[in-house]
Amino acid sequence: MPHHQLAKLNDHGQRFWLDSLSRDMLDNGQLASRIREQGLSGITSNPAIFAKTMADSPAYDARIAAALNTLAEDGSAPAEAVYERLATDDVRDACDLLLPLHEASDGLDGFVSLEVSPHLAYDAVATRQQARELWDRVGRPNLFIKVPGTPQGLDAVEALLVDGIKVNITLLFGRDAYEETLQCYLRAMEQRLRDGKDLHSVASVASFFLSRIDTAVDRELRQRMGARVSAGLVAEAESLLGRTAVANAQLAYARYREVGESERWQRLAKAGARPQRLVWASTGTKDPSLSDTHYIDALILPETISTMPEATADAFNDHGRIEVPAPERFTEAATLLERLERNLAIDLDAITHQLVADGVQKFIDPYDQLLQRLAERMERFRDARAATGRASPLLGQAKRLRASVLRMTSHAGSGHATSSLSCADLITALFFHEMRWDPSAPGARDQDRFLLSKGHAAPILWAALFEAGAISTDPLTLRQHDSDLEGHPTPRNPWIPVATGSLGQGLSAVNGMALADRLDGIEARLFCLLGDGECSEGSVWEAAQFAADQGLGQVVAIVDANGLAQSGPAPYGHDTSVLAGRFRAFGWRALEIDGHDFAAILPALKATRASDSGAPGDRPTAIIARTIKGKGVSFLEGAAGWHGKALDEEQLAQALAGIAAPEVRLEMEPRRVPRAEPRRATIARNTREDAQEYSQPPLKVAYERGEEVATRAAFGTALRKLGSRFADLVVVDGDVKNSTKTELFAETYPERFVEARIAEQNMLGVALGLAASGKRPCVATFAAFLTRAFDSIRMAAHSQHPRMLICGSHAGVSIGEDGPSQMGLEDIAMFRALNGTTVLYPSDGVSAERLTEAGLEHDGMVYLRTTRGKTPVLYPSDERFEIGGSKTLVESLDDRLTLVAAGITVHTALEASARLREQGVHTRVIDAYSIKPLDVATLQRAAEETGTLLVVEDHHRDAGLGDAVAAQIGRLARVFRLGVSGDPRSGAPEQLLERHRLSGRQIEREALAIAA
Amino acid sequence: MPHHQLAKLNDHGQRFWLDSLSRDMLDNGQLASRIREQGLSGITSNPAIFAKTMADSPAYDARIAAALNTLAEDGSAPAEAVYERLATDDVRDACDLLLPLHEASDGLDGFVSLEVSPHLAYDAVATRQQARELWDRVGRPNLFIKVPGTPQGLDAVEALLVDGIKVNITLLFGRDAYEETLQCYLRAMEQRLRDGKDLHSVASVASFFLSRIDTAVDRELRQRMGARVSAGLVAEAESLLGRTAVANAQLAYARYREVGESERWQRLAKAGARPQRLVWASTGTKDPSLSDTHYIDALILPETISTMPEATADAFNDHGRIEVPAPERFTEAATLLERLERNLAIDLDAITHQLVADGVQKFIDPYDQLLQRLAERMERFRDARAATGRASPLLGQAKRLRASVLRMTSHAGSGHATSSLSCADLITALFFHEMRWDPSAPGARDQDRFLLSKGHAAPILWAALFEAGAISTDPLTLRQHDSDLEGHPTPRNPWIPVATGSLGQGLSAVNGMALADRLDGIEARLFCLLGDGECSEGSVWEAAQFAADQGLGQVVAIVDANGLAQSGPAPYGHDTSVLAGRFRAFGWRALEIDGHDFAAILPALKATRASDSGAPGDRPTAIIARTIKGKGVSFLEGAAGWHGKALDEEQLAQALAGIAAPEVRLEMEPRRVPRAEPRRATIARNTREDAQEYSQPPLKVAYERGEEVATRAAFGTALRKLGSRFADLVVVDGDVKNSTKTELFAETYPERFVEARIAEQNMLGVALGLAASGKRPCVATFAAFLTRAFDSIRMAAHSQHPRMLICGSHAGVSIGEDGPSQMGLEDIAMFRALNGTTVLYPSDGVSAERLTEAGLEHDGMVYLRTTRGKTPVLYPSDERFEIGGSKTLVESLDDRLTLVAAGITVHTALEASARLREQGVHTRVIDAYSIKPLDVATLQRAAEETGTLLVVEDHHRDAGLGDAVAAQIGRLARVFRLGVSGDPRSGAPEQLLERHRLSGRQIEREALAIAA
Fold first, then answer.
1. How many CB atoms lie within 10 A of CB A238?
2. Interface probe, candidates B766, B794, B992, B994, chain A, greatest A C-beta count within 10 A
3. Partners of residue A623 on adjacent β-strands
4. B823 plus B960 within the same structural domain
5. Chain A residue nearest residue B481, CA to CA
6. Which residues of chain B lie closer than 8 angstroms to A798, CB-CB?
7. A502–B785 C-beta distance less than 8 A
8. Which of B126, B500, B977 sits opposite A821 (nearest CB)?
9. Distance CA A609, CA A603 (A)
10. Which conformational region is residue A601 in: left (phi greater than 0), alpha (psi within -120 to 50 degrees), or beta?
11. Which residues are named in the active-site annotation (chains A, B) (predicted)?
């Protein structure tokens, strides 16, 4: 049998009350067991206690909901009424628990105290009125109404006692106030006696406070113990620490005994009056240097009550010391208080008076906060009630989507079922509730749009589109060869703006779509669903920075934090705070929610509306949703080893039975987004002359033959001119506008110029998003740095041929001193290996401008390669350059070799040709500016006429122009290649061309060797 | 002339004092002008005021330093002594400012008050002693020592006054305490009279407090105004708000007048005693509903002083109202205080008594905080003094580096001078102070190492290495063709671990170096210098996440936040908090410092030592350093348009003159890092059998011919086996270990397996860092996702041929249903276009294992391409596969065509060959498993013998194997290519091979067409 020190207090004439009450305690049997085992004989409550228990405990959920319904049908009850309902319910239940004891003790024990509103502490009339209401509402004989012992409180107390209402007078700190309390009780009993009323049925206790007194006095004592203070004074102050409250209480108790022995009381006692016992309150120790049972141990006195917080009760029960003080202590106590005043100038009266006011405030603050908190909880209940009304069809629809996902993946035999199930509720909330969209209008931009960045969850997207009536392809054709429901979404399906499936790219595309919307005055929201594992991709943070810096408040990233990546746990499991913290650090607003709870999902989505009071303004929003991978199917939930796997027939049947999806699908109402006037920004504001000059092809170009012009500069010049012709042209830079020369466009069309900073993946993604929204993006950086974005470019190529111009500047070793890290030597290989791309490589200012024009006119992805250094203008200004063409610059009937060159090597090839001609070797020179598609016809003719081709390119020797020519022409002639091999390095451009055998002299030497 | 309402107070017999004092005020002439223009005639100070001014103001820097030196030679003076020094200095200077007024007014005006330590408020003896000390230390006649009006304080005051020390009695709230003060003054004067001392030379004032009383009383009044309180009570409470303090003060003033008229006083006055004037203190309005001059306006009474905080003084000067109260007000005041007590139970005595204790505490807290703060500042000064000792040679060295940078860039005619200057101090601190390194040991790993992620700042690195004697190459050869001092660093210079210059990659390499150190028990730190613009690269955040998740506490990222990117401002200018917040959100410790202040740089670097008390433990550290681009050259500092530009001769001369670098360079002491025992982790803990079985080449392989095995699985198997042979093998995964099958290695060698999650750029960078530290990394992901890391791979290729094996799985359309996003179709093109790479592509289990072995043995970068689906084993288990070889699988004298295939297409080619043979068409079949280098000899023979080659590959048709063969063999035979063109999509593998003309049937058809 466990040791119960508390139960022993009874043997010493003291009762143990608990200074705590909550619904949990009532429900979990704690109170009952304390009564049974620890001799608990009473309970006190106060607003601060209720504030702690009621503010957030789910134990009150049902009661708040019920109170809302019963107090006012429309749920509009004031918070105070709900508080009183909850408090009186708790107190009444506690009274009932203690009623047997109350009755068995002839009304001596088994009380529960309930306090009036702390706001009424100084209003006798209002106190009396509320005490009466609470008394009636609880309706139990073992109730104490708790009233503070202020002068007005005591006025009310006297009247209440006369009326027969039982009162616990509280907030007694000073002995003067206690004296008033005693007198008040005596007067009330005398009045009842005079009125001929029964005295035995009335009860009262006086709650005398302890630890707060020491806290206040000790603070002043410590003031006396600072640096440089005399040692004697410090010692005196130190010796009194932690002793005032007990001494003060001992003197109060002495006064209680004194009154009890008075004739005046004896007369009342004979008439049946019960003594007004002292209750020791504020018994929890605050000072860590004192024992945690300090205030209990010292005051185990007959006919008193000790009311303890739970921790103190448990501590005493475990190791409390029972030691009844000798009466001499009372003299010691008096001496101690004298020392305080005399030696240390501590005014205990002033302190205790102030403690009353502080005590009232200590209830007012939590009471007001509790009402505030209750009002919020009530609001949430009203919201939840409304949301439940909306959620219940959504719950059914989510089941239908889950069932559909399982059916289609099982039918396909593969596909990401579990990654689809985790976001089923999020997708349902988006497509069937929050998004304003029109299932009949896949191409329309005046609707909220969705992009599945975690592309492997395609099944849930197909399911949602099918169920909403947006597509008619049978979901069971998932992943089949002729279906547009691919394993990862591609724009072969009309609802897919860009291909996804290589993780971390969606948010950048959404950024581009948002920019396009902003240019066109469309106020749609753009939702992007990401996985949690996916957020390890740096491109996500490039996109996050961009969205925040550009103020794209309409962008919403939803992270499906299912805690499991492909091959193990996701980095931060279900701790959504990590990603939320990162989004916040990148300038986003971040919300963390339960991704399976519509009551959490719907408000979070609502908060992304521009019209919502919590709308993000210019800040994008990230919603980090805790979800369960495989949610909805018991044996898949959170289970490892199911990534990307489908269920077999038996498992499917079991899962579908468990889901029990409703028969009927939820109809959704098509909606569109209001479309504002397009911003001025979209209208070219170039000079009128420019517009006249350059509005029609062919572009007017003006260079002198032989003039030195860098092709990168000519590209920038052309862009600027064409800004007036193409109102949909948007230029995206990666902090190199002064190198690529897009700055020329930026100066004229700042509204259509986007600074994407040093973040090439996002830069390409933004361009793709712009293209997906009908813009004509041009993106430019060093050719070398495009390798950084190769995956983004690859996915763009899988996005059904978006119209975009990508310019890579600083191609080849001819950049010179900056060295290999800045040299584009792999760019032609990259673009050649992608489907649907065009590769153009101008050699002079005229061709650079013309090819820029051709690239922008072309309906597809075009790569334009430019050179850092200046080269002489070769062509007349009116020369035309077609995609798929070439220029034969030197030609004769005697040609024995054709030099095929592009860009910078056109110039060195011309130099070599001239040198060779001097030696009697005639070579043809072809400017193969269209590397893809190649001008096969011209090359074939050259092959036939000269027999041998030498391809010279400032690019890695493999996979570039040389390979392209060899692959196409190799069957007709011998094809030799000169390109960069060996490690490149820093040096003067001419030295490097020489070193890599691309100079005129080296070409000459190679040609002679071949010819030999 | 400006309006000065303050000056008018004099006309009404009131003096204006300022309740504020600071060094700034003294120095900037504010006090002097207030004396001149506003009639300021006194100043009060207190510990809270000094706490505000002294805690952080740089105005005290010099004085703290001086106090430290003069108080104790070793700088060990206690903070209190320094405080007293600073305070008495300020007060003395203020006294001197007011001395003329003091003298002109016959000692009536021009006082400054200095308070005793608030800790002495209840110690008469100590108060008296300290007051005497302060009095002597200031040594001015117009000083008031301020003493609180506690009983003990007044005891001291009486004695002080008798001694002739002038006293301002403060913290007077209650009229009872004021009465004591009056009596105390009377007694002191009477004593002096008795002692025959002069009375006229003594002065005293009584500071009576105002607004704090209202704050306390109004708080209680508001308690009476809560919900449900009776309307009458609320109205009464409301009517008294904000009125108590003034009423209380009026009554105190009435008492002052009363005493002044008493006989007792008249006797003293006749003997020369001066009245003890009342000072209104705490006059700043706290309640926003009251006028900001409330406490001034109401108490403009003759012979009083109003001491005001600056804001109140300025407010009154602007719009104060001068309205002298009629005497009847005093009666009103008494009534008001009665109402408080009677109607509202507010105990003003209790409140005022408590306010004294609170007031003392309100000085103790800031006083103690100030001493704490001063102790910290003193510590910083001691640190700084120590650092200055260290810094002064560093300052000179930094100048030398700056001069060197300018000389070399000007000589080169290009290079990033300004980006080098911004980090010159950081680099100097690292290389000449903090890093333990040995200039004679470029290859050694047992030293702290440095990586310049912002590679364009190469000049500063070369300068530092040269100055430290680590390199001997003349810095003036910067960027020259034959120098290893390249424009951006490459490992051609022995101090460079990996090439940098493509931004955002350094941190990942450092991560890999740190992992290698951890495996080998080397406790070096790894410093990585980044630019601020660079931090827009997502790869930085991939690396940041990795470092934190792996607990790489030895990694230190230093961000040179110079606020300027290449083409405009960096994203967050000099606001270092943004990047610091991001690093913190990614799990790092982040420090923000001034990157040009050695006193800030050195402690920040010191805090990264494992032995430092603030050491980061397992958390990496980011130091975000605010710097100025171009720092050190006046016309370059923060100027736009200088990125990457060099100075001309004249500018250089001007800059060098400004820098004035010292002649002599700073010698640095070579140091090494202690090297611990290697962790067990590095020792293969495979089974003994494995070690015996697989320790020697050739690798034992065991498959049956015809057995179905996926090459990716065979790769994983081989890795696991080879783990025992290569103790330096470390495998890095991107969350696809169950797909690439590196999980087989992970299970056996978890310590050498690194989960780099879905972040391919960092994954490659980590592998490069491992290679740079002598490990043999193998990294694997889907071939498609290697495109994500192309720039990282490219930079690795520029890093002088690191030894690493890169495996790309899921190659080609044959992956099937997952669709194009997951298909590697560009990987061969990528690796072919890089210098020094090897490309291997096994077709069955045997070749996959053998090529894995060959790849790991090879000293360079090897790409291994594997296939998702299972393929039949073609080769006997003991078949050998050399890099540069091929296998001729079908061959006859009748061959009219050679099918060149690799990987999956070897199988479809064999199928086609068999079909063709049935039709009498003999074809040779070559497995070209070594795509780079190609087995040219075998292909040439086939070309010669069969005349036509048909290359078949599951890769994009361009830039892959077909191109390679065409380029090499095209001159000898006709080369046709079959590869993937057109948009790939989801579907069954067989369907997709068929669709893209790679199936046996399609090859057969193409072969027949060619043959025809």
1. 12
2. B794
3. A558, A591
4. no
5. A987
6. 820-821, 983-984
7. yes
8. B500
9. 10
10. alpha
11. 146
Within a domain: B683: no
Residues in CB range of B750: below 8 A, 6 or more apart: none
Find chain B residues with C-beta within 8 A of A503's C-beta: 758
Residue B1008: closest CA among B356, B725, B1000, A232: B1000
Q: What is the DSSP string of B155-186?
A: HHHHHHHHTT--EEEEEE-SHHHHHHHHHHHH
Peptide bond connecting B569 to the previous residue in cis, omega within 30 degrees of 0 = no
User: What residues of B are in contact with residue A980 (Cβ under 8 Å)?
Assistant: 835
Residue in A490, A759, A787 nearest the CB of B790: A787
Report CB contact under 8 Å: A958, B975: no
Q: Which residue of B has its CA nearest to A480?
A: B987
Q: How far is CA A940 from CA A969, B387, B907, in A?
A: 6, 75, 34
Cα radius of gyration rounded to whole Å, chain A: 43
Q: Based on the domain organization, do B868 and B892 belong to the same domain?
A: no
Whether B121 sits inside 8 A of A223 (CB atoms) is yes
Of B125, B787, B986, the CB nearest to A790: B787
pLDDT of B256-300, one tens digit each?
A: 999 999 999 999 999 999 999 999 999 999 998 999 999 999 999
* pLDDT reported for residue A326: 66
* ipTM reported for the complex, 2 dp: 0.72
Total number of domains in chain B: 4
Contacts of A695 (CB under 8 A, 6+ apart): A724, A725
**Is A846 found in the same domain as A905?**
no
| pLDDT of A2 strictly over 70 | no
The stretches of A685-750 forming alpha helices (DSSP H) are: 688-694, 711-722, 737-740, 743-748
- SS3 of B373, please? helix
Active site members of A: 146
Inter-residue contact A743 to A769 (CB < 8 Å): no
Judgement on whether residues A866 and A904 belong to the same structural domain of the protein: no
Contact A487 B817 (CB under 8 A): yes
For residue range A117-144, what is the model confidence (pLDDT) as tens digits? 999 999 999 999 999 999 999 999 999 9
On whether the CB atoms of residues A950 and A966 are closer than 8 A, the answer is no
In a domain, B682, yes or no: no
User: B474 and B594: one domain?
Assistant: yes
CB nearest to B959's CB, from A224, A790, A963 = A963
- Cβ separation of B787 and A791 shorter than 8 Å? yes
Cβ within 8 Å, pair A565-B223? no
Give B567→chain A minimum CA distance, Å. Answer: 5
Rounded to 5°, the CA angle B635-B640-B645 comes to 75
Tens digit of pLDDT for each residue in A838-848? 999 999 999 99
Put simply, the answer to whether A986 touches B800 (Cβ < 8 Å) is no
Backbone φ and ψ for B386, nearest 5 degrees, come out as -65, -45
Backbone torsions φ then ψ of A321, nearest 5 degrees? -110, 130
pTM value?
Answer: 0.72
Domain match, B897 and B857 both = no
CA distance B738 to chain A (A): 6
Query: What's the CA gap between A677 and B238, in Å, rounded?
Result: 55
Count of CB contacts below 8 A, A vs B? 450
Domain that holds residue A915: 887-1011
CA nearest to A931 within chain B: B958
What amino acid positions of B are annotated as catalytic residues? 146
* CB-closest option in B482, B499, B585 to A581: B585
Alpha carbon distance A788, A792 (integer Å): 9
Return the CATH number at A797. 3.40.50.970
Distances (CA, A) of B752 to A570, B177, B547, B620, B683: 20, 78, 16, 21, 9
Residue B721 pLDDT: 95
> From B477, which residue of chain A is nearest by alpha-carbon distance?
A987
Provide φ and ψ at A116, rounded to 5°.
Answer: -75, 170
